[in-house]
Design a protein that fits this description.
The structure is a single chain. By secondary structure, the protein is mainly alpha-helical. The chain has a single domain, classed as MFS general substrate transporter like domains (Growth Hormone, Chain: A, Up-down Bundle), CATH 1.20.1250.20. It has 20 helices and no strands. Helix 1 packs across helix 11, helix 11 packs antiparallel against helix 15 and helix 11 runs parallel beside helix 16. The longest helix has 34 residues. The radius of gyration is 22 Å and the shape is globular.
Length: 514
């Protein structure tokens, strides 16, 4: 039976779906807001070493997002393609969430090894959980407007999960640790890990997959070629990472050569006849020739840079520049409450303004307000909160719109090619988070390192305060302003999406009646 294009989701299902991202953001928006300062100030890793860790692990893990998307697309079970992964992966994600904030009493070199092991495990478990979760949005309803509303509920849940960790972690660490941060961090994340499993279970039991995409070959049939194709992406990402960290002539030359060679390879790969490609290779070709998806990838990265730099700096800014670490928790709490409200209304605003217009307002308004923080002095607490909260109201629209528009890109792919690799297309969401978050987190630490920052040396902290101010203000705004250039050329407006949606409904109904 065909599903009407105007299909509405119940309040229970929308809120149940939101709980899954509340769980994920106990890790992503919450725990990882403190991971950098945990590494430098509690585990004792240098800022430069921590920057390299964040960048390399997140970039390489971003590749696994694409692989996970392909695997999820080819999963078959009585519970659907995507829902089972949410429940299966929850205990593993919870485990690594605790381990990542555990500081064993070992040598400095082994502490760095431990950080790599636990951070890789955390990001990989997050991939297995969140890529299928993101793709689930694309098959719960065929309505592009209902997906936008669902995306709003999702990010309201995401912000709610984030606020629990970002706002209460400092106080909980103090309460459980009683002056021992190592003990405090570990016991705090025992609590959050248990909550994560409960929230993922709610999502699994309250949601349903309704849109049945065209069938794809099994995982085993195309996995070898799929892995080879995706693994090649590690080479240009490695070159980018090398240049970003070293910023010297040799790394620049390597970067230029690798990017040029990658462009030539991709050009030949895209032009291969369909008869000479496997199903998984066709999925990648569809992805690389999907103009809306490519533009969303760029938009998502710019906005992730923007948000990642801001939130990655908050703990440092309030602890060392404003002189009160507890203000950071309060700032996270207030801004996240505003984010939750903005996320819920975003879907409804798009029915009035359209996604492109709302996105433009979001980028311009947030960047102007964020830049204003540059002029705040340490005693200007009210000014910083006012500017930060106002900026976050606009910034909260960004992820809602990106993930909603990824569903539009999936519709466009099915409409254009007759194929719909929903998991693969939505894997861009976590790829954006990993790559954007990796660069953003690394940039924060590299800027602080350039000022000589060492978390255990008060003298170096003082000289790095100017860097913290820049990172809280104009540096992230550069990326949000840059995103506007891409947005201007984004091709899927409201009118075109309505036509694509109607065409797809008609095609599916015709197939069912055939």
């Amino acid at each position: 039976m065909a599903i009407a294009p105007s299909h509405k989701l119940s309040f229970t299902e929308k809120t149940g779906y939101a709980m899954g991202d509340a769980a994920a953001n106990l890790v992503w928006r919450g725990a990882l807001a403190y991971i950098a300062i945990f590494y430098t100030d509690t585990l004792g890793i240098s800022a430069a070493a921590a920057a390299t860790l964040l960048l390399l692990v997140r970039l390489s893990d971003g590749i696994t997002d694409i692989i996970m998307g392909m695997i999820a697309d080819r999963t078959t079970s009585r519970h659907g393609r995507f829902r089972p992964w949410i429940i299966w992966s929850a205990p593993v994600l919870a485990l690594f969430m605790v381990l990542a904030f555990t500081a064993p009493d070992i040598s400095p070199g082994m502490k760095l090894v431990w950080a790599y092991f636990t951070y890789i495990g955390l990001t990989l478990a997050y991939t297995i959980n969140n890529v299928p979760y993101s793709a689930l949005m694309g098959v719960m309803t065929p309505s592009h407007t209902e997906r936008t509303i669902l995306s709003g509920y999702r990010f309201a849940g995401a912000f709610a999960g984030g606020v629990l960790v970002m706002s209460f972690t400092p106080d909980m660490v103090n309460y459980f640790g009683q002056g021992d941060d190592v003990k405090g961090y570990q016991q705090t994340f025992y609590v959050f890990a248990g909550l994560l499993v409960v929230l993922c279970s709610i999502t699994f039991f309250t949601t349903k997959e309704r849109v049945e995409p065209p069938k794809l070959e099994g995982v085993q049939a195309g996995f070898g070629e799929m892995f080879k194709s995706v693994a090649l992406m590690c080479i240009p990402l490695g070159a980018i990472s090398l240049f970003f960290v070293r910023q010297d002539l040799i790394s620049g030359i390597i970067f230029a050569i690798v990017i040029s060679a990658t462009g030539i390879f991709l050009s030949k790969f895209i032009k291969k006849p369909e008869s000479e490609t496997t199903s998984s290779q066709r999925d990648l070709i569809d992805l690389l020739t999907n103009k809306p998806w490519l533009m969303l990838l760029g938009l998502g990265l710019f906005t992730m840079f923007y948000n990642g730099i801001r939130f990655g700096t908050v703990a440092y800014y309030f602890t060392h520049y404003m002189g009160d670490a507890s203000l950071g928790g309060k700032f996270f709490f207030v801004t996240t409450l505003v984010s939750m409200f903005a996320a819920v209304i975003a879907g409804y605003l798009t029915t009035w303004l359209g996604k492109k217009v709302l996105f433009a307002i979001s980028l311009i308004g947030s960047s102007i307000l964020t830049s204003g923080i540059y002029f705040a002095q340490p005693e200007d607490v009210t000014l910083v909160f006012t500017l930060g909260v106002s900026a976050e109201f606009f910034a909260a629209f960004m992820p809602v719109l990106v993930f909603s528009m990824l569903g539009d890109a999936a519709d466009y792919s099915e409409w254009k090619n007759g194929r719909r690799a929903t998991g693969l297309l939505y894997s861009a969401g976590t790829f954006i988070q990993k790559m954007g978050g990796g660069f953003a987190g690394a940039l924060v630490l590299l800027v602080l390192a350039s000022y000589g920052y060492v978390g255990t040396d008060p003298d170096t902290i003082s000289q790095a305060k100017a860097g913290m101010v820049n990172l809280m203000s104009w540096i992230p705004s550069i990326f949000s302003i840059s995103a506007i250039g891409l947005l201007i050329f984004y091709p899927l407006n409201t009118q075109r999406m309505s036509q694509i949606e109607a065409d797809l409904i008609a095609r599916r109904a015709q197939k069912e009646n055939a």
